[in-house]
Amino acid sequence: MEKLNEAEVERELADTPGWERAGDSIVRTAKFKDFKEAMEFVNRVAGVAEEANHHPDITIQWNTVTLTQSTHVAGGLTEHDFRLARRLNAL
């Protein structure tokens, strides 16, 4: 998988609402009513990530979940990251 150049990253970000650039990654944070609801979301993320065979880093802080997406083997962002991010937006 090929790493995107800066112009491609900006174009993909414009088509991926809710996600922000953080260095060589994109990040999205979501808040929920409580820990249980946050964990239910994480489990749905896990299902989509497994299906895509592409996995975000996930940080859970009680009712707040942060997803960080990057393609480590490419050394940055690829089309695969944005495709998965848009699928996760549907959750």
Describe the protein's topology:
Blueprint: H1 6-14, E1 20-22, E2 25-31, H2 35-52, E3 57-61, E4 64-69, H3 79-89
Antiparallel strand pairs: 1-2, 2-4, 3-4
What CATH architecture do you see?
Answer: 2-Layer Sandwich
The largest sheet is: 4 strands, antiparallel
Poorly predicted parts: none
Distance from N terminus to C terminus (CA atoms, Å) equals 25 Å
Number of continuous helical runs: 3
Overall body shape: globular
Number of domains: 1
Tell me roughly what share of residues is in helical segments: 40-55%
Q: Give the SSE order as H and E letters.
A: HEEHEEH
Total beta strands? 4
What is the percentage of strand-forming residues?
15-25%
Can you tell me the CATH class?
Alpha Beta
According to CATH, the fold-level topology is Gyrase A, domain 2
Which strand order do you get reading across the main beta sheet?
1-2-4-3
- By secondary-structure content and strand pairing, the structural class works out as alpha+beta
Average pLDDT level: 96
Walk me through what this model shows:
It is a single chain. By secondary structure, the chain is an alpha+beta fold. The protein has one domain (6-90): Transcriptional coactivator/pterin dehydratase (Gyrase A, domain 2, 2-Layer Sandwich). It has three helices and four strands, in the order αββαββα. The protein has helices spanning 6-14, 35-52, 79-89, and strands at residues 20-22, 25-31, 57-61, 64-69. It has a four-stranded antiparallel beta sheet with strand order 1-2-4-3. It is globular. The two termini are 25 Å apart. The model has no long low-confidence stretch (mean pLDDT 96). This is Putative pterin-4-alpha-carbinolamine dehydratase. Its EC number is 4.2.1.96. It catalyses: (4aS,6R)-4a-hydroxy-L-erythro-5,6,7,8-tetrahydrobiopterin = (6R)-L-erythro-6,7-dihydrobiopterin + H2O. Keywords: Lyase. One of its GO terms (biological process) is tetrahydrobiopterin biosynthetic process.
